[in-house]
């Protein structure tokens, strides 16, 4: 897939607009399944970042072309921005999983005078100083898809993490029993989402005798994980179950077991169309943890709410339940490629354009 354009013009510029009375947090719909974090959760006051129409919104994406999910996050973000008339310009910069590039990207967005900046951090520390600079300049920062060590951002939408890993881990413990031997397939080393998903698995394993035979990073990529699983299988095919941190890695390992004519052990999955097709066809034991790429659209929606003068909370969580095979069947589309992820906010026309098989 070609790299996405780094900047798009979305909607029509309105030179002036009448400012409305500030709205409160309950008026803002961030995304299905997203809720305010319970407990200590500061309020971003209504009106604090309100501006007339003609907004410029920037986004620092940790790595657009890392895998099919990250590509769709960019599409979802661009689609959400294009649907808002008040957004004059939406600029998406690709850090390519490079910490120094992300620092430069955020500082570039500050220099361009963005009215709001959305950040997907490369690591838990890579964006901290730049986010602090943006906030000091009066620019609200929306954080999602990875926690950071600094608390200087304006609002965050955090999904997956420990909850995601534990949804899959709890299911796997039930599937294989307390004395099983498992493989653990992790994502990109150093990325906060990988670390926190893994921590969720460890919570599930507490109090069991389950042994992790091997723990490897497949970077959430199909090709790398297919080679990895081939090596693991040839070294020792006797595994009771597999905890996989992402669906592209799950698909790769399933294909390896089929390639060797072996039974597919219980293996965790995720909301990817290609994985759904495998699961439905082959009927192995699995669960689909939900991690919608529409979090990209949610980040845009939060930025828009701030610029409209609406009240938000500082912390939002996205912790949905896992999907079983019946729910998977409701979403699977054989007319779309393996690369689309569910649930999505992309309209049917865009789904066909980007992922249609014809």
Automatic annotation (TrEMBL):
Subcellular locations according to the entry: Periplasm
Gene3D superfamilies: 3.40.50.2300
One term under GO cellular component: outer membrane-bounded periplasmic space
SUPFAM superfamilies noted in UniProt: Periplasmic binding protein-like I
InterPro entries assigned: Bact_Solute-Bind_Prot2 (IPR050555), Peripla_BP_I (IPR028082), SBP_2_dom (IPR025997)
Domain of life: Bacteria
Name recorded for this polypeptide: Substrate-binding domain-containing protein
């Amino acid at each position: 897939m070609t790299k996405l354009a780094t900047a798009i013009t979305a909607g029509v510029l309105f030179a002036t607009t009448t400012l409305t009375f500030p709205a409160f947090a309950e008026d803002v719909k961030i995304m299905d399944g997203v809720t305010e974090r319970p407990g200590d959760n500061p309020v971003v006051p209504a009106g604090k970042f309100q501006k007339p129409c003609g907004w410029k919104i920037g986004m620092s994406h940790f790595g657009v072309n890392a895998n099919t999910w990250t590509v769709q996050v960019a599409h979802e973000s661009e689609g959400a921005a294009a649907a808002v008339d008040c957004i004059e310009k939406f600029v998406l910069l690709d850090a390519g999983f490079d910490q120094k590039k992300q620092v430069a990207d955020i500082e570039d967005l500050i220099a361009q005078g963005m009215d709001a900046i959305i950040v997907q951090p490369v690591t838990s520390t890579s964006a901290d100083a730049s986010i602090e600079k943006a906030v000091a300049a009066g620019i609200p920062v929306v954080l999602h898809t990875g926690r950071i060590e600094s608390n200087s951002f304006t609002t965050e939408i955090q999904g997956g993490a420990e909850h995601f890993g534990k949804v899959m881990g709890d299911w796997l413990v039930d599937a294989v029993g307390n004395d099983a031997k498992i493989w653990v397939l992790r994502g990109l080393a150093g990325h906060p989402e990988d670390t926190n998903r893994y921590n969720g698995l460890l919570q599930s394993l507490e109090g069991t005798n389950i042994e992790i035979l091997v723990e490897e990073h497949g970077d959430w990529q199909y090709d790398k994980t297919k080679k990895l699983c081939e090596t693991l299988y040839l070294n020792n095919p006797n595994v009771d179950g597999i905890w996989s941190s992402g669906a592209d890695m799950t698909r790769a390992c399933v294909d390896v077991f089929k390639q060797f004519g072996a039974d597919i052990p219980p293996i965790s999955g995720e909301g990817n169309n290609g994985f759904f097709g495998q699961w439905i066809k082959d009927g192995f034991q699995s669960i689909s943890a939900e991690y919608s790429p529409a979090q990209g659209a949610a980040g845009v929606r939060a930025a828009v709410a701030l610029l409209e003068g609406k009240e938000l909370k500082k912390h939002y969580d996205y912790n949905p339940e896992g999907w079983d095979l019946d729910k998977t069947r409701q979403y699977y589309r054989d007319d779309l490629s393996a690369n689309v992820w569910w649930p999505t906010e992309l309209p049917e026309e865009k789904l066909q354009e980007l992922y249609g098989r014809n």
